[in-house]
Each structure stands twice: as C-alpha cells, then as structure tokens.
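Two quick folds needed for the group meeting slides. Do the first one here.
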Amino acid sequence: MIDPGKLFHLEGGQQRRKLALTFGALERDVLGIAEKGTEYSFKNIPRVEYIKRVTEVLLRDPKLPESAAQELKALMNAEPVDEYRLCNIARNHLLALIGTFPAEWDLVIAPHASPTDENGVVRKREFYPGVCVYAEDIRSPFNIGSIFRSAEAMGAEKVFISPHCIDPNQPRAIRSGMGCIETMGWEQLALDQLPPDLPVFALETGGTDINEFKFPEKGICIIGSEELGVSPEALAKATYGRVTIPMKGLKASLNVGVAFGILMQKWVEYISK
C-alpha cells in the first residue's frame, strides 16, 4: 500500500493508475483474499480511514465528473462505511477516466485451495481429470478468451483447439481470457488427433436436453464455430452423443462462450453428485 501523501504528489495518468491499483488491492484485502505482500499494513491508521484518504485524492482529480464525486462523498459519509463498495465504485470511476474497462485492467483473484509457493502464488491448479473441450474453428478472439476463462473457472483439464481456430495468443484473446490462457493447458489438434481414450460429445441443436443428458466422467465436448456450429465431421466424431440447451426465445440463439459456460456448469454439477 502506498502512503496517501505520496499519492497527492503524483499527477495525471500516473496518479490514476496508482490509485486504481491501490483500490484494487484494498478490495481484495476487504474480501480477505489479499495476495501475499499486498495486505493492508498501516498500523497507525484504520483501513477505513485510509480508504477515505485515498478517495480524497481521487476527489481532487479535475476530470472526475461531479456526479461521480457526489456518489463517492455519499459513500464516504455513510455510517457504517461500506469499504468494499467505496473501493469498487472509486476504482471503476478511475477506469472510466483512464479510458479502459474493469475486465481489461484487474481481476479480483478468488481464494485458492491449490498449492502455493513461498510467495503465495498458485503453482498448481485444481481440475477434473479428463474433462476437456475441443473448440472447432472459433473465429472471435473474445470468444476463445471467454471459453478459456470458463474452462479454467469450472475446472476443465485442457482445451483443444482446431487448426483453423483463432490463435489464443492473439492480444484480444489474452485480454478476454483474463490470464486463463496462460494457466490452462491447451493444444492445437485436428479432429483425428484427439485422444482416443476419451468419449467425445457435441454441444449442438437437435440433441438430448442438457437437463437429461448423462455426462461422462471424463470426455471431450466439441463446441462449434460462431456461424456454422459443429461441423458434420465433428458430429460424426461425437459418438458419445449430442447435448442441447433448451431455449424459449424467438431467436433461440446463444453466444458460443455463454453456451459453453452453461455446458460446463451442468457437466461439473453432474460429475460432482
């Protein structure tokens, strides 16, 4: 944590970036999930008072809209002060001033039960062995990043991508993936190169209702491209079956990343029973 007095002496973009990082660290500390070395450590001032002082630095920013300033002042003067909300609102106003979005800047890291090193950094992620996804010809970097993010969050072991899939190392994919592309195991393979020992099924229309589908304990789920869906060749490869998400809307259409997130939740639910 940086001394509020030092923050007062910074200017412009540098001050805003430091403030955004400080509010992010404070959010994690309030939630009890501060990363090692970033815990609140000022013994001569309670954390709530520190948060108020740092907020006062932001209130002096000439580019802060009056409506934002009034919102922050109301949160500062509340009894009791909602520390997490004040930090979160302040950080989001800062991100607006910087010209970026929360998802592009900072991910509030959830507590992990996984093994950590001496610095508290997670070195081994937990996952469901054999739970994998095959992304076939996904074209959007944002979609592939979202797929990696859902796969990592829900405990998939590995992501396979087809030869014509967007490169996960594309900058917008990395940004959308929020660090998950770097931590997830992944491999580029053709359909006929998929591991032969794992059952393969497809997420596609015209299949078994996802609420009735008997998910395998281990397997590979194929998800198709944004425009064409799962290819005929991939459907032929999916000998374990086809699963479908029932929908009531007129369009009956879901973004592939959203559909995959629903699929993963149902799969994990099923094998965790």
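Then this one, please, same format:
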Amino acid sequence: MNVTDFARTWLRNWYSIFIHELKLIFSDSGAMVIFFVGGLLYPVLYNLIYMNGTVDEMPVAVVDLSGGSYSRRYLQKVDATRECEILLYCTSLEEARQLMQKRVVHGVIYVPADFDTRIVRGEQGVISTYADMSSFLYYKCLTMGTSLTMLDEMHQIQVEHDIPQMVVPEENMPYNKPFSYTIFFISAALMLVIQQTLFYGSSLLAGTLREENRSFASMSRHLQGLGVGRVVLGRGAAYLAVYLVIGTLIALFIPWVFRLPQRAEWTQIMVLLVFFIVDCIFFTFTWSVLIWRRETVFVLFLSVSPILLFLTGFSWPSTAIPEFWQKVAMLFPSTFGCRAFINLNTAGGTLATIAPEIKAMTIQTMIYYFLSCAAIYVENRINEKKRIFAHYGK
C-alpha cells in the first residue's frame, strides 16, 4: 500500500470512528445530561449561589475598655467602612461572645484598657478581633474593615506625633476591586466544570459499553496495530467538536451574562480552550479504563471535585500546598487550566503570560495520548483473548 492509499484508508477509518462516537454521545441520555445540562447548569448555579460575592455592613459588637479619643476615632472609622457596621457596644467580652453565639453579630472588636495610654507613650497599641467562622465572608469583612482602618489610623497618628513614615501603605486591587468571592471562586470553577463534565460523561459512556460487552476497544481486525491511533484520535475529535461549543459557552458566555471580569481577547480564550480541552480528552481516555460500571462515575463525582478545586491553588497559594499534593495536582489538566484562565481572563495577562501552563498542558497531552493508546491496545488484546476462550469453551 502506497502512502496515498494509506492516508485515504486512515482518514476513512478516522472519519467513521468520529461519526460513530458522535452517534454514541447523542444517543446516550445520561451523557447528554452531563455534557449539556450539567456543563451549562453548574456554572449558572454557581453564579446564582455566589451572586452576592461580598457582605456589606456586617454587624459587629465592640468592647471598648479604653474609651479614649484614639479608640473612639478608630471605631468611628471602622463603622464608616463598607465592610463593617458597629451594631452594639458591650461592657465585657463575655457579653459580646453571647451576642455572637446568638448570631446577632458576626464579629467582635476588643479594645483593651491600655490602648490609648500606650499610643500616647509612643508604644504599640493592640486591638483584637473575633470573627464568626461559619462563613469565610464574615472573616474577610472583619479583617479587611479593621486592617485597612488600622493602616489609615497609623498614618494619622504618625502625622500628629511628627513621626517619620518609613513605609507608606497603599491599597491597590486592580483585578478584584470589591474583593468579591464570586470573582475569586468562579474563575477557577469554570475550567473545572469543563474537565469534570467531560470526564464523567465520557466515562459514563465507556462504562456502559463495557457493561454491554461492546467496548470501543474491541476493534475490528482492519484497525489492529496502527488502528489504535485512529480510534483515539477519532473519538477525541468527536469530544473536541462537542466541547468547543460547551467550553465557549462556559468560558465566554457565562462570564458575560453574570458580568464577571473578561480582560482577555476572545481569540486568546479560544486558544487556551483548545489546549485545555484536548488535554482533558486524553486525560479522560487514559483514566476511564478504570471505569467498568456506569454508576462508578457518580461515586467519583462526589469525592474528587472539591479536592481538584483546592489543588488548583485558587484559594490557597500553591507554594504552601504540601509537596506530595503538588505532585498529585500535576496529574490533572484542571490545575494548569484554572491557573491559566485566571491569569488570562481575570488578571488580564496574555498568551505569553500563560506560556508555562500551555507548555505543561502540552506535555500532559502527549503523555496521556500515548497512555490512552496503550490502554486501548491492552484492553483490545484482553477482549480478544476472552472471545477466544469463550469460543473454545463452548
């Protein structure tokens, strides 16, 4: 067979596998629900749930044992912030604690009796805060309101006492000015939704086929050997066609609807999506070999997603994550996809900015492509031997 004939045969086989996989996708109601309903519903639900990404005028109680001019001025400034509203003044910390237990207030500011005296002496004054940790937003409001006020008060005290100001504080949050948890969380969640719905939907199909003894790895004889690559690339092209549509809606349309930051050009987002989706496809093909039952997918859904979201580093610096978990995170496309999307779309970077993530996803893609080919080849050989044993066993 010459090169031309081989190319025609290869493309004809690839196209038949591509069409066959598309038919499987659109004929399985469970996969369709995961891909189109789950893939689009989850981002909408996340945005609706976290629509109010900030808490304004959070009620707090104050225990001011100092009662001096400095403490009063400081507390007036805290009350004037967007984050905090001083609801009650208490005579003791125990009284304030009871109010917080009853959820009348969500934070307590404690000013010790020697606060003003220490400031007048030029010593360091200490103010303690206690936050309701039932919500991250309560802690964030109390911390930001009191800390930013403290910086302003320190500057004013230095001016009044003619103290040279060695460090000038400056507030600058260009990427998330309201410090909204919605912007903070959704940017990472959108990419994870693409990976997880693709994995669960494709694995659901694979598990169904294996249950029915008609696995995609059971290739006809004319597809043996080099046919493995055709199966992987044909199936991959089908998922790429589907998820370019879903991914575009998730990464471009959802942020536009909910007015999330969109600081990147749409062409740059599309480049990222192609690299990320292809990586997710071969990642799915590799690990879906472990799925032999349809229901296994739903068990994984409940246990894996929160871990993967944390490993992206969106809520905790990746450098502070233990080394073992950093290595585990490198197994998943979402780790690099989420970081790249945040840097590109939220922080306003360029493709050059996310070059390390693109490189990591490219390496992952190559590794998972060869692993998925090997997995299909091995499964095909096992299925052949099963058929032979079943034939001679009769």
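Slide caption for protein two: Residues 75 and 253 are 43 Å apart (CA to CA).
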